[in-house]
Specification:
The complex is a heterodimer of chains A (about 350) and B (about 300).
Chain A: H1 10-36, H2 40-52, H3 55-80, H4 88-106, H5 112-141, H6 145-167, H7 198-215, H8 217-227, H9 229-234, H10 239-255, H11 257-266, H12 277-287, H13 292-315, H14 322-337, H15 343-352
Helix pairs in contact in A: 1-14, 2-3, 2-13, 3-7, 3-10, 3-11, 3-12, 3-13, 4-5, 4-6, 4-10, 4-11, 4-12, 5-6, 5-10, 7-8, 7-13, 8-10, 12-13, 12-14, 13-14
Chain B: H1 2-34, H2 42-60, H3 63-87, H4 92-115, H5 142-160, H6 162-172, H7 174-179, H8 184-210, H9 222-232, H10 237-257, E1 261-262, E2 266-267, H11 270-285
Antiparallel strand pairs in B: 1-2
Helix pairs in contact in B: 1-5, 1-8, 1-9, 1-10, 2-3, 2-4, 2-8, 2-9, 3-4, 3-8, 5-6, 6-8, 9-10, 9-11, 10-11
Chain lengths: ~350, ~300
């Protein structure tokens, strides 16, 4: 099979193959749009204008991309350690709880320069803590991390509904929302849209993850564990500790989604602010080949899809925002589960050239 | 005395109503997992099936056409899963997650395009639904009985037939099955198709028997609870059935307790009951209640040696 053929050159593996995979996903989406009775090319045009047509729409695109960078990085870090973190959804949710609790506790008397870092740290800490339990169960008790992180998503959701409905709800409020944060907890807005300073945090996280994974000994040990656990043990890595580290880091990154959503836009804790970003992070990480730079590019694409999809659903009533969810699912399918589908074909084409 | 009897009857009926989709889904998932194919995509299959059942029943007026369409829809996803995981040796968890997300989006997109009710299907009339057979207030539609029969059927198929023996073997050691001259691919495909069939029944139960139509995300994690039940039952049909009943009972109790004050404790949060199936499964997985051992080759794509 494919192993007997010449392996793909690096540029084809990291650039061409993801592009082919995403093209396949888009062809399928085009067929679905056609079935619904909308001209796919018209839809594509509207989607692109909706995503990058004005400075306001670019702002929205970047705002969505910020969330995707956080969750994409979260999944990537775990991937490098050979762990599959499907719990980004729950970790982002609980991260929001930490972020919100910190702000609700301190926003009456702390200045912004102190409050904002505390809230960011709390978001990361709570996200990490929510990932730490499945990590510990995997490291010490051998339970499978995929199953436990899925279960923890549901537990997080039940916990948040309980807290929002019974504990944190603002007095006199009909909807389960906390009281509004004080203005000192608000992040500065950019480009006059929902885009805020957390995109700088997201990019800083990218650089930090890159340095950590490729330029520190811990990052090296983490990647070794992902490639070959036996070799990692031989080199003296403590697999349990490394599993905990990777998952906590992953959870912390996912938790930061709440910085963008709660401190940047909503200014209160509310239900389901993280909906879908945790899962989309899997698509982002797969497309971005788990590299911070790739994650940024993939996040930009997904941000544009999210924003363009929203505009598209305004323009064409037959198409709903969920079209974006379909695209995400197909991207995960084609660049994740079916990533080997075009490979033999690509190998054959490239092998013909000298 | 008569009153207590009727409360117990209603509780048992409520338990069985909630457990039915879990049982069907768990029996389906069991085939897949026994053969070594992880199925995180049960939720998506069930959701897709629920949508096509309600959509078809609404368009044709026949609930049985709905059930048929549900099975076809679920099988299409099952075949995709098989194509990705068995033929192309893709990551089974990634494939399952992809199918879940795809189903969550596609059901709303198609529903909105076809019925223009924000992703819902029109409300189904009695003749378009599967109605209770014997007890009108218990909701015992035919699929409830099918679910109950699916358990001995699964048990028999897995542990008393040649197919079952091979199925278990392929989940533990595919190399041995291959060496015996039996196609690993075909065996696993049959397991995945059986899974799609049962998940299709489960989905149609949710939208045309338990409810009167499809609404977005209506499976609400039941596919994952079924997955939890499989693990809780240690990948065996009868214990998994027991886990489904227990999870169903938890749900029935939660609904009963809603808003009630329990003496000494106060109001019990409903969310605790919703989280309990997951928490219990986590405890089990952590080895605090017995040990759950998965089929050995689960999640590992089989590469034939030349």
């Amino acid at each position: 099979m494919s192993t007997s053929r010449r392996p793909l050159p690096v540029w084809a593996d990291i650039i061409l193959l993801p592009l082919i995979n995403i093209a396949l996903a888009f062809i399928v989406v085009g067929i679905i749009v056609e079935i619904i009775g909308v001209d796919p090319f018209q839809a594509l045009g509207l989607l692109v204008t909706g995503a990058v047509g004005s400075s306001e729409s670019i702002g929205y695109t970047l705002y969505y991309a910020t969330n995707f960078i956080f969750t994409g990085l979260a999944v990537s870090v775990a991937f490098h350690a050979g762990l599959f973190n499907i719990g980004g959804e729950g970790q982002a949710y609980i991260g929001g709880l930490g972020c919100g609790l910190a702000i609700l506790a301190f926003d009456r008397f702390l200045p912004a320069w102190l409050l904002v870092p505390i809230a960011i740290a709390a978001a990361a800490l709570f996200g990490a803590a929510w990932a730490a339990v499945p990590a510990w169960l995997q490291a010490s008790r051998g339970s499978h991390i995929v199953i436990t992180t899925i279960m923890f998503n549901f537990v997080a959701s039940a916990l948040m509904v309980y807290l929002m409905v019974n504990v944190l709800i603002a007095p006199g409020s009909m909807t389960p929302q906390s009281r509004g944060f004080a203005p000192s907890a608000a992040l500065p807005v950019l480009l006059g849209s929902t885009l805020n300073l957390s995109i700088a945090l997201a990019l800083a996280c990218c650089v930090a993850v890159w340095i950590f994974l490729w330029h520190t000994s811990w990052g090296y040990a983490l990647r070794t564990m992902g490639h070959n656990p036996a070799a990692a043990v031989y080199a003296g890595t403590n697999l349990k500790r490394m599993t905990m580290l990777a998952m906590c880091l992953s959870g912390a990154l996912a938790g930061l989604v709440s910085v963008n959503e709660l401190m940047g836009v909503q200014h209160r804790i509310l239900l389901d602010f993280q909906a879908g970003y945790g899962f989309a992070g899997i698509a982002v990480a797969l497309m971005g080949r788990s590299h911070p730079l790739g994650v940024v590019l993939a996040a930009l694409l997904f941000g544009a899809l999210q924003q363009g999809g929203a505009e598209l659903s305004f323009d064409i009533p037959g198409i709903t925002r969920e079209m974006v969810v379909v695209i995400q699912g197909l991207v995960i399918l084609f660049s994740g589960a079916l990533e080997h589908l075009p490979r033999p074909w690509l190998q054959a084409v490239l092998a013909r050239r000298p | 005395m008569h009153e207590l009897g009727s409360i117990l009857f209603l509780m048992a009926a409520a338990t069985l109503r909630t457990a039915t989709p879990l049982i069907l889904c768990a029996m389906g998932g069991l085939f897949s997992e026994k053969s070594g194919i992880i199925d995180v995509g049960l939720e998506g299959k069930m959701l897709m099936a629920a949508f096509f059942a309600a959509a078809t029943a609404s368009l044709t007026g026949s609930p049985w056409a709905g059930v048929g369409a549900a099975i076809v829809a679920s099988e299409v996803l099952a075949l995709l899963h098989g194509f990705a995981c068995i033929v192309h040796r893709g990551n089974q968890v990634v494939s399952g997650v992809a199918l879940n997300i795809l189903a969550a989006g596609l059901t709303v997109v198609l529903g909105n395009a076809w019925f223009k009710q924000g992703g819902q299907t029109p409300s189904l009339s009695h003749s378009q639904r599967l109605m209770p057979l014997v007890f009108p207030n218990a909701g015992d539609s035919i699929l409830v009985y099918v679910a109950l029969l699916s358990v001995p059927f699964t048990w028999w198929l897995v542990s008393r037939t040649r197919f079952g023996l091979r199925l278990r073997a392929v989940g533990e050691m595919p190399l041995a099955v291959d060496a015996a001259g039996i196609s690993v691919t075909w065996l696993r495909f049959r397991a995945v198709l059986l899974c799609g069939f049962f998940a299709g029944l489960a989905g149609s139960y949710i939208s045309i028997a338990q409810n009167a139509g499809f609404s977005r995300d209506m499976t609400a994690g039941q596919g994952f609870i079924a997955l939890a039940a499989i693990i809780f039952g240690k990948w065996r049909p009868v214990p998994a059935f027991g886990a489904c009943l227990m999870f169903g009972l938890l749900d029935a109790v939660a609904i009963r307790l809603q808003g009630l004050k329990v003496p000494g404790i106060g109001e019990v949060p409903v969310q605790l009951f919703q989280a309990l199936p997951y928490l219990l499964t986590m405890f089990l997985l952590a080895g605090f209640i017995g040990r759950a051992v998965a089929p050995k080759a689960i999640g590992v794509p089989y590469t034939k040696e030349h």
